[in-house]
Amino acid sequence: MFTFDEVQKQDPEVYKTLIGEMRRELEGVELIASENYVTPAVLQALGSHFTNKYSEGYPGRRYYAGQKFTDQVETIAIERAKALFGCDHANVQASSGAAANIAVYTAWMEIGDTILGMDLTHGGHLTHGAPVTHMAKFYNFVRYKMKDVETGEIDYEGLREVAKKEKPKIILAGFSAFPRTIDYAAIKSIADDVGAIAMADMAHIAGLIAAGVLRNPFDDGFEVFTTTTHKTLRGPRGALIMSKGTVGNPLKAPEKTIENLPTLIDRSIFPGLQGGPHMHQTAAIAVALGEAQKPEFKAYSQQILKNAKHMAQQFMEKGCKLVTNGTDNHLMVMDCVKSFGINGKQTEEIWEHININTSKSTIPDDENPPYKPSGVRIGTPAMTTRGMKEPEIEKLVDFMMKAIEIRNDDAALDTLKGEVQEFCCSYPVPAIDPAAWET
Ligand SMILES: Cc1ncc(COP(=O)(O)O)c(C=O)c1O
Asked: Fewer CB near the terminus (10 Å): N or C of the chain?
């Protein structure tokens, strides 16, 4: 059982928040597509003594003494990432997905260069050049979109035209709210034609790729692959940057060639962007990558996909409108205006009232602003971790539809919340035991 007895003794104020969060996670349904529940082993590694250690540099080349075990654990994480994703090099030090993407941009481009990525309302991510980000001040971001929002097919011809005109240095494939598959080979061929590198930001689906249930962009020749480690990969917060090429001496600035990408990326993370790596996080990433190598992880990933497909089907049968009319991965985006006549923020709040968490999301070319968008994004990785399968998914959809129906009746919503809580408490969350707050 996970307890926080030392915090409890020393700092009751913080202790209350730790227990509150544990309880919230057990008693609620987590359908935020980017969240998951880590295993006790990942959590233990994350809470380990590696947090005490400064390890600027890379294994075998550090700036401080005492690196015997940090070198070992970082090497384990690197080797596991390389084996899982099939690449020559992995940097495991980026503190988050945003930092990983920035490190690649700065490794490969000069200020003012162009990067071509998925339009944000069509599913791209903030770090792919939202005007509010610092990166948008330094680089010229241009966009591609879906050709048909009913099927999710990307407009590859449009992408080719923009690429020819804008001459990007990077073409970026990746998303945080796109439910369909990407033709990586098509993007790679366009990148080759215009002399760009093909970069995949697989933050959302890396676990599904590691498990072999979704296609790996490296198999279509992509040069760089970034991902967060905390979504479908089910590790701690963190990121990987992977590439093909040869690792050189990080102390010497190499020429900007594809062969030198590993060295450029390593130098971009440290000393370019970050100082000491979070070694406790690296240790937990190593554990999570070890879990992802096991057969159970493949079965888990297959079930995520089945659950998402089933959920999408259920919603559509009940008259809801989904962007692209379904899903090929772990998430779906619902058009709440068309489905219920209310926006995504209102829908998110109604479901939150009954302890079901989703995240509001823009829909393609949304007329509503991002803080009050037209859609919600819903994903199945977390509830699949809790052992839910198709019958439980149907039950969740029923709860959600019922909540919409009774949305103006607070007392009825409170009763429904009780039912949701009772239902989901019988599906354990790894590393959470109610005994922690019942004693
Ligand atoms: C596609 C994509 N890239 C990057 C990120 C950024 O990751 P982080 O929140 O760890 O900085 C996210 C997070 O949601 C994402 O979905």
From this structure: C
Neighbours of 313 (CB within 10 A): 17
| Ligand 1 touching residue 228 (CB < 6 A) | yes
Q: Is 12 exposed, middle or buried (0-12, 13-18, 19+ CB in 10 A)?
A: exposed
Q: Is the CB of 204 under 6 A from ligand 1?
A: yes
**Cβ(250)–Cβ(266) under 8 Å?**
yes
Cα(127) to centroid(ligand 1), Å: 7
Q: What is the DSSP code (8-state) at residue 201?
A: E
Is the CB of 100 within 6 Å of ligand 1?
Answer: no
Instruction: Determine which residue's CA is closest to atom 4 belonging to ligand 1.
Output: 97
Assign 230 to helix, strand or coil: coil
Does ligand 1 have an atom closer than 6 angstroms to the CB of 176?
yes
Atom of ligand 1 lying closest to residue 237 CA: 10
Per-residue pLDDT of the chain in tens (439 residues, 90 and over written 9): 778 999 999 999 999 999 999 999 999 999 999 999 999 999 999 999 999 999 999 999 999 999 999 999 999 999 999 999 999 999 999 999 999 999 999 999 999 999 999 999 999 999 999 999 999 999 999 999 999 999 999 999 999 999 999 999 999 999 999 999 999 999 999 999 999 999 999 999 999 999 999 999 999 999 999 999 999 999 999 999 999 888 888 778 899 999 999 999 999 999 999 999 999 999 999 999 999 999 999 999 999 999 999 999 999 999 999 999 999 999 999 999 999 999 999 999 999 999 999 999 999 999 999 999 999 999 999 999 999 999 999 999 999 999 999 999 999 999 999 999 999 999 999 999 999 888 6
34 Cβ closer than 6 Å to some ligand 1 atom: yes
Measured in angstroms, how far is the CA atom of residue 236 from the centroid of ligand 1? 13
Question: pTM value?
Answer: 0.97
Q: Domains in the chain, please, with CATH?
A: 46-292 (3.40.640.10), 295-430 (3.90.1150.10)
Instruction: Kindly give the number of the ligand 1 atom that is closest to the alpha carbon of 174.
Output: 1
Angle at 88 between CA 85 and CA 93, to 5 degrees: 75
